[in-house]
Amino acid sequence: MINSYTLSKALLGRARAVIPGGVSSGNRANWTPFPLYYARGDGSRVWDVDGNDYIDYVLGRGPLILGHGEPEVIDAVCRQLRSGQFFAGQTEAEIELAELICTLVSNAEMVRFCNSGSEAVHACIRLARSATGREKVLRFAGHYHGWYDGIAWGFSGVDVHPDGASFPLPMSLGQPSSDASNIVAVEWNDSEAVANAFRTYRGEIAAVITEPIMFNGFWSNIQPFEGFLRFLREQCDANGALLVFDEVQTGFRISLGGAVEHFGVAADLSAFAKALSGGVCLAAFAGRKEVMKRLIETNTVHTGTYNAYPPAVVGALRHLTLLAASSGAKLQRIHHQTALLERGLRDLVRQTELPLLVRASPGAVTTAFRAAPTQVINHRSAAEGLDFSLQRAWHLAMQDRGVRITPEGLWYVSAAHSATDIAVTLDAARDALQSLSS
Ligand code: PLP
C-alpha cells in the first residue's frame, strides 16, 4: 500500500545541487514526504517517475480544469507550434480569445494578455494607480495576489499595534520596506475595517483588490459575507477608487462569467489565469474600456516578450471554447463532481473522531484539521487551531493511497474526474483517516 518514492528521491538529490530545494516554485518544496518528480498525466490521472499513479486533484494547481492532455487543446497548440511559433506581433486567435472573454465576463470590455496571475495582478494595480493618480492599495490579510514585491504585503497577516494601527507583514525577505507604505491591509469580511481605512486614507486609495472567494491562506475556500463584495463596490464608488477582482482562482471555475456573474457585483478590473488557459501558460487582465484604454492613450506601460504567445493563445481559445460549449455543460459537470466529492468527504467527517473540516466552492474542495470551533471568516480566524502536523500526515496518507491533493488541502476538480474516481478517492480517504486515528 505504501508507495515507493526511490527514483523521485534520487532525482531530488541530483536537483538540489543545481536548483535550490530541487524546485522551481517555492510552494512545491512543501510536499510530503519530499518533492516528487512526475512522468505523465492523462485525464484525471498522473504518474510519478516511480510508476505510482494518482487520481490528481492538484491539476497544475488549478489550470487543468478539463483534465490532463485534453486532445483538442494539445492539437491546437501543436498545430500552432508547427505553423509559426512566435512573431512578437499579433494573431487573429488573440482577437478571438479576447472577444470570447468579453462575451463570457460581463465586466470585461477589453482584455490584455500576459503570462501569469502575478503579472495580471501587477498590471491591474498599475492601471488603477494610473487611472486615479493615487498610490495606496487596500487589500486583505491572507489573500494571495502573486509574489511581486509591491502587493505581497499582508499575505502573512497584519501586525496590530496597541494603538490599533495595523501594518501589513511582508511575504518574503527581500521585499523593500518602502513598498509597505502603499499597502493598507485589513481582515477580510470586515466592512467596518474597510470603511475605516477609506476614512483614514481619504483620497489616497487607488484600488481595493480582493479574491472574491478567499481561496488562498491557511484554510481556503472562505466565502464573502452576504453583501460584502457589494459593500466594497459601494465604498470604491464613494471614494473614487477602483475595485479589482483577483479572479485567478475563481475565473472560469465558479462560473463562466467568474465572480462577477456568481455574486452579481462588477469589478472595474479583473485578473485571470489558471482555468483561463487549461494548462498552457497564459493569463489576462480585463475591465472597463475607459480604464483599459489608458494602456494606449497614456503612458501606462504593459509589455512582455511572451505576451499572447500564439501556442498559448490557441490552446486557451480551444480550452475556453470547450468549457463554454453547450451552455457550459462541462463546467456544470465539474460542479456536480465537486458536490459529489464534498458530500462524500462530509460523510467521512461524521465517521471520524479527527477534527476534519470540509469546505467547498464550485470546482474546488478544501480539507483541513482544526480543533478550534470558531467561525472561519478571514485570515485571523482561519489560522486559529489548525493542526499542521495532521495536515501533513493526511497529505502523505492520501498520496500513499493514490490520491494527489495540495499540501494545503485544496482539491481542484476537473471534468475528467469520473464518479468512479470520486468513489475510489472516498475509499482512500476513509482508509487514510482510519490510519491517522490508530
Ligand atoms: N492570485 C491568486 C488568487 C492566486 O491564487 C495566484 C496563484 O495561485 C496568483 C494570483 C498568482 O498567479 P501565478 O502563480 O500564475 O503568478
TrEMBL record:
<dbReference type="GO" id="GO:0042286">
    <property type="term" value="F:glutamate-1-semialdehyde 2,1-aminomutase activity"/>
</dbReference>
<keyword id="KW-0663">Pyridoxal phosphate</keyword>
<dbReference type="InterPro" id="IPR015422">
    <property type="entry name" value="PyrdxlP-dep_Trfase_small"/>
</dbReference>
<dbReference type="Pfam" id="PF00202">
    <property type="entry name" value="Aminotran_3"/>
</dbReference>
<dbReference type="InterPro" id="IPR015424">
    <property type="entry name" value="PyrdxlP-dep_Trfase"/>
</dbReference>
<dbReference type="GO" id="GO:0030170">
    <property type="term" value="F:pyridoxal phosphate binding"/>
</dbReference>
<dbReference type="InterPro" id="IPR005814">
    <property type="entry name" value="Aminotrans_3"/>
</dbReference>
<comment type="similarity">
    <text>Belongs to the class-III pyridoxal-phosphate-dependent aminotransferase family.</text>
</comment>
<keyword id="KW-0413">Isomerase</keyword>
<dbReference type="GO" id="GO:0008483">
    <property type="term" value="F:transaminase activity"/>
</dbReference>
<dbReference type="InterPro" id="IPR015421">
    <property type="entry name" value="PyrdxlP-dep_Trfase_major"/>
</dbReference>
<protein>
    <submittedName>
        <fullName>Glutamate-1-semialdehyde 2,1-aminomutase</fullName>
        <ecNumber>5.4.3.8</ecNumber>
    </submittedName>
</protein>
<dbReference type="InterPro" id="IPR049704">
    <property type="entry name" value="Aminotrans_3_PPA_site"/>
</dbReference>
